[in-house]
Amino acid sequence: MQKCNANSNILSVLSLLKDHTPEETEEQTAIPYRWCLVLPLADGGCLKTLLGDVRSRKLAFPLDFKDLIFKKLVKAVTFLHSHNLVHRDIKPENVLIDGNGELKLTDFGYALDLGEGGSVSDLAPAKINLGTVSYKSPELFNPRYSGAVAKDSDVFRKFDFRAVDVWALGLSYLVIHFMMKPWDEASAEDLYYKAYASLYKSEEVAKQYKKLVMNNAFEKSAAFKADKRKSFEIFCRIKSMDTKEVVIRMLDPIPSTRFTIKDVSRSKWLTQCVDDNKGLSDWVKKAARG
Ligand SMILES: Nc1ncnc2c1ncn2[C@@H]1O[C@H](COP(=O)(O)OP(=O)(O)OP(=O)(O)O)[C@@H](O)[C@H]1O
Ligand SMILES: [Mg+2]
């Protein structure tokens, strides 16, 4: 946690305290204490509330500011992943706004330190499938998507939590821009997700995504036309092809071919995104004040 204090878009930890109230674990064995984090006050509410307020009050929300908010989250996650840390519960609700109008990723309740090897080997399946259901990536519902070999224990050992973060960040982009997600959950039970995944499925994903993006395949598909809820419409609403490509590749159902956070941060779109930090924090401060 100490390492995270160096990043301006991650909420710093002021102190770590031991609470000696005994806590019951899942196994019902009492442990002597639990850790408590002392955090600085971020009294501007969370990003999700800000997005809702902006919409209900019909405030102007420039596209550049939406992109910059996303870019800041990408920077925070790039920092985490470069230090072998994964968050595992990325969503606008877990981004707080401080008194300077700065956005701070927080809620490290499910975070893991992967260590030098970049993976964990001793997690029980119940400790893997954590996070917020609607932001969970498909491999959390079906571990075999992870592309690992057949034995169940190996599937879990090779789990790539960085890819899980990128997926949640891709959905966060859609929520920041359009206040909606294209499906309720990325599982075979969800018809909208199933339709999306079947469009995406290909042995040559790298070529396929271009076809999907360039030919507006989502929009032309039978699934899209039959989509009464217009869930896929959000993909059409992304005007820039560069942006659309990045978002769709962050939402690659196969974790091994999904964009990494480096791919996202080095994309033409984000490198060209204007860093008007002062403009954004002034706007956020005003909007958060209500
Ligand atoms: N440092 C802070 N400053 C101000 N408010 C905070 C701070 N930390 C947490 N909160 C408030 O508490 C809420 C929940 O915090 P957090 O996400 O860390 O905990 P949680 O147990 O995971 O809750 P949830 O399940 O709602 O995500 C935040 O959305 C925010 O409203
Ligand atoms: Mg939370």
Summarize the structure in words.
The chain is mostly helical. The protein has a single domain (43-285), classed as Transferase(Phosphotransferase) domain 1 (Transferase(Phosphotransferase), domain 1), CATH 1.10.510. 44% of the residues lie in helices and 8% in strands. The chain has helices at residues 47-56, 63-82, 125-128, 138-141, 152-157, 161-178, 191-200, 205-214, 217-220, 222-225, 233-237, 241-250, 261-265, 268-272, 277-289; strands spanning 15-19, 23-24, 30-31, 34-38, 85-86, 95-97, 103-105, 112-113. The chain has a two-stranded antiparallel sheet. α8 crosses α12. The two termini are 32 Å apart. The mean pLDDT is 83. It binds adenosine-5'-triphosphate (ATP) and magnesium ion (MG). Adenosine-5'-triphosphate is lined by residues 11, 39, 41-43, 46, 93-94, 96, 106-107, 109. This is Protein kinase domain-containing protein. It comes from Babjeviella inositovora NRRL Y-12698.
Order of SSEs: EEEEHHEEEEHHHHHHHHHHHHH
Number of domains: 1
Structural class: mainly alpha
Largest sheet: number of strands, sense, barrel closure: 2 strands, antiparallel
Strand content: 5-15%
GO biological process, one term: mitotic DNA damage checkpoint signaling
Protein name: Protein kinase domain-containing protein
Domain Protein kinase: 1-270
Pfam families: Pkinase
Short description:
This protein is mostly helical.
